[in-house]
């Protein structure tokens, strides 16, 4: 495959004199497409050197030929025909490695006018300036949190994040994200800061190394942790099965609130992947000795049908008194897609969190799980959580959460209110 990729890139650098049969052969090698189908073209025979490549790429819809069932592989292609092939290859961009994607981006830029005439809108290309690409998201949110007496307190806030990715070379890029938080109801702190900054090195598309402050999402639900991590993270594998090994500091959560920077350090190892309708993961977190953190965890999402999922996460700290546990289990109906208005997802789940096992930087906004770490007189928090997402229009999502039937264990005698949140989320 490595030889095929090199040939692919060399051939793509040629211009209008490139023969169609050569281009299609190199494209199928680069995309790693393999298929078995009947020959769709009368002027391509099994004796032609690119026969299988042409057949495979036709099966994928990248090459369609001419009326009458011919390919005309000996004639030079036009810029318009080249643009057609590029447009079809863009649909398979997720199958390419970093080097191949970079080459395809260059081609898309070269043939941008022709792609525009075809009605192909290349979003990623439109956001690029030189070696830089930009993206972002914003949010306006109404939420509730607990006051001193367990009452639900309202808050209205907003957030915008702007990300920039700089392609250093074919295997290395730098990524940074600027965040601005605003409080519309209370005192406005007007915080603007870089909450993510890292460099990533890719090794042949099968391994990678990330250095800096990066996003870290644990489990299937993000119940345990959904924040940033400072340090180094090595990755190896594929979508079906991958493994991470990292060392650094949890910026959010309890590990990030240790008394000294030295106590915040932790090692993390995890495996995760997806196969068919199954998604799975397993994690291990070892904190510094002073923190007493040896957390084991695992999660699973199983697609019962195309629309119905069951999911769960489980964590236990075996280095804390009583070996406390944090877990959630639930189900969901539907799958939302930010590019498809009207798509939705609704879910319901039960959450149980015990002091010492919960890192307390969850992805959920309406959550009573944090009580076990925020309050010294609470050892366990249990509640139900309902959530819903609806794509109102392209790249605009309405999100809601409702936490109810909150129960706690410990010295506290407080009856805690239900919590709710609703937000409008935008991506660009």
Key attributes of the depicted protein:
428 residues, alpha+beta, Porin, 17 strands, disordered N terminus
Descriptive account of the structure:
By secondary structure, this protein is α+β, with helices and mostly antiparallel strands. The protein has two domains: 2-119, no CATH class; 137-427, Porin, CATH 2.40.160. It has nine helices and 17 strands. The protein has helices spanning 2-12, 20-31, 51-59, 79-90, 98-110, 112-117, 123-126, 261-264, 371-374, and strands spanning 128-129, 132-146, 152-169, 172-183, 191-203, 207-217, 226-237, 242-250, 265-275, 278-287, 294-303, 308-317, 325-333, 344-354, 378-393, 396-410, 419-427. It has a 16-stranded antiparallel beta barrel. A hairpin with a 7-residue loop joins strand 4 (172-183) and strand 5 (191-203). Helix 1 crosses helix 2. It is globular and about 75 Å long.
Question: Would you kindly provide a brief summary of this structure?
Answer:
Helix content is 18%, strand content 45%.
Work out the radius of gyration.
26 Å
The overall number of domains is 2
SSE order, one letter for each helix or strand: HHHHHHHEEEEEEEEHEEEEEEHEEE
Oligomer designation: single chain
Count of helical stretches: 9
Main CATH class of the largest domain: Mainly Beta
Main sheet record? 16 strands, antiparallel, barrel
In CATH terms, what is the fold-level topology of the largest domain? Porin
């Amino acid at each position: 495959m490595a030889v095929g990729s090199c040939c692919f890139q060399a051939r793509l650098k040629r211009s209008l004199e490139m023969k169609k049969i050569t281009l299609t052969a190199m494209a199928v090698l680069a995309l790693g497409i393999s298929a078995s189908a009947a020959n769709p073209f009368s002027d391509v025979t099994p004796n032609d050197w690119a026969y299988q490549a042409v057949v495979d790429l036709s099966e994928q819809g990248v090459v369609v030929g001419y009326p009458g069932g011919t390919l005309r592989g000996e004639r030079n292609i036009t810029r318009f025909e080249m643009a057609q092939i590029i447009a079809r290859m863009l649909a398979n961009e997720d199958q390419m490695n970093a080097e191949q994607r970079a080459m395809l981006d260059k081609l898309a830029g070269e043939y941008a006018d022709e792609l525009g005439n075809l009605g192909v809108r290349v979003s990623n290309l439109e956001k690029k300036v030189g070696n830089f690409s930009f993206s972002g998201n914003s949010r306006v949110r109404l939420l509730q949190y607990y006051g001193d007496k367990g009452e639900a307190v309202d808050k209205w806030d907003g957030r915008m994040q702007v990300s920039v990715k700089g392609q250093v070379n074919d295997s290395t890029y730098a990524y940074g994200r600027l965040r601005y938080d605003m409080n519309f109801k209370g005192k406005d702190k007007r915080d603007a800061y870089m909450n993510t900054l890292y460099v990533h090195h890719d090794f042949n598309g099968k391994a990678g190394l990330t250095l800096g402050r990066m996003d870290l999402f644990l489990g299937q639900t993000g119940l345990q942790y959904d924040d940033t991590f400072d340090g180094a993270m090595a990755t190896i594998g594929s979508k079906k099965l991958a493994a991470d090994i990292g060392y650094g500091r949890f910026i959010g959560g309890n590990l990030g609130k240790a008394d000294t920077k030295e106590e915040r350090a932790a090692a993390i190892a995890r495996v995760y992947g997806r196969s068919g309708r199954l998604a799975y993961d397993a994690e291990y977190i070892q904190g510094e000795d002073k923190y007493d953190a040896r957390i084991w965890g695992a999660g699973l999402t199983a697609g019962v049908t195309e629309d119905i999922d069951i999911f769960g996460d489980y964590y236990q700290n075996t280095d804390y008194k009583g070996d406390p546990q944090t877990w959630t289990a639930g189900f969901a109906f539907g799958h939302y897609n930010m590019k498809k208005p009207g798509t939705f997802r609704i879910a319901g789940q039960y959450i149980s969190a015990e002091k010492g096992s919960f890192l307390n930087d969850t992805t959920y906004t309406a959550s009573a799980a944090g009580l076990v770490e925020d309050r010294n007189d609470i050892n366990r928090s249990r509640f139900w959580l309902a959530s819903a997402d609806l794509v109102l229009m392209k790249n605009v999502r309405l999100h809601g959460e409702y936490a109810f039937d909150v129960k706690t264990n410990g010295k506290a005698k407080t009856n805690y209110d239900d919590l709710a949140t609703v937000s409008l989320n935008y991506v660009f």
